[in-house]
Design goal:
Layout: H1 16-19, E1 30-33, E2 39-44, E3 56-61, E4 66-68, H2 75-97, H3 101-131, H4 136-205, H5 213-216, H6 219-247
Antiparallel strand pairs: 1-2, 2-3, 3-4
Helix pairs in contact: 2-3, 2-4, 3-4, 4-6
Length: about 250
């Protein structure tokens, strides 16, 4: 029986029970089985970054042998699995060299669809292997697909962990910078507090008013008193700050 679905290879003579399960769109990756022992594998090519559409590949088992639009038998399936493996290896190399959050984010956007496609491809082959338990070549492809699925899941997980690590590392750097600025500001405030009594006394004595004689003759005594008040401010503020840090 010749099918009337334009997206399928014209050489596929699918039985009616298979055609009834298909539509005019490729759909998800799956294994479709008919009533007379025929199978149809609908698989997707390796997803490309920022491309939502998926290109479909079809493999048909007529009850005796496999057919595809490309290499005869399951040769095209093994070529597809090899393309998935290469794509995963390329992304793993990017993780090793990436040192910015943007690079890891771009990788995650590709690794996510790659992991999902690898997982769905593996499940489609599992269903086919259950229906054809004696097909050793199909079982080999299923096991290879499982390896790709595991590698793609690890890639996606590693990318997410790497991104979280970069974010945590940046947060620690910002916290250290904030702590250094806080310490610097505290020291500047202590220095300002030390000279505050002298500045206040200097402003008072420098006013254009007539001061008592004992004030005019006790300059160095007043200066020394200002220094003592400044030291007291340093001691009191430093002691309270140290005590609060110990409590934390």
């Amino acid at each position: 029986m010749v099918h009337e679905l334009p997206h399928l290879p014209a050489s596929f003579a699918l039985e009616a029970s298979l055609i009834d399960q298909l539509s005019n769109r490729n759909g998800c990756q799956r294994c479709v089985h008919g009533q007379n022992g025929q199978l149809l594998l609908v698989l997707h090519e390796v997803p490309q970054p920022s491309v939502p559409e998926r290109m479909a590949l079809f493999f048909w088992f007529d009850g005796e042998q496999w057919h595809s639009a490309g290499p005869n038998g399951l040769g095209g399936l093994f070529a597809l699995l090899e393309e998935y493996s290469k794509a995963i290896d390329e992304q793993e190399a990017i993780i090793d060299d990436a040192d910015t959050a943007k690079e890891i984010f771009d990788l995650i956007r590709h690794a996510g669809p790659l992991a999902r496609s690898s997982r769905n491809l593996y499940h489609a082959l599992v269903d086919a292997a259950v229906l054809l338990p004696k097909d050793k070549e199909l079982r080999s492809a299923r096991d290879r697909a499982h390896e790709n699925e595991r590698a793609a899941d690890l890639l996606y997980a590693d990318a997410r962990v790497t991104l979280e690590f970069i974010r945590a590392e940046r947060a620690e750097e910002q916290a250290r910078s904030s702590d250094r600025l806080a310490r610097l500001g505290f020291r500047l405030n202590l220095l300002a507090g030390f000279f505050l009594p002298l500045v206040a006394l200097g402003g008072l004595m420098g006013m254009n008013v007539k001061l008592p004689d004992f004030v005019q003759n006790a300059f160095w005594l007043i200066f020394l008193g200002g220094l003592i008040f400044g030291v007291l401010i340093l001691v009191l503020v430093g002691y309270k700050t140290g005590a609060s840090r110990k409590e934390e």
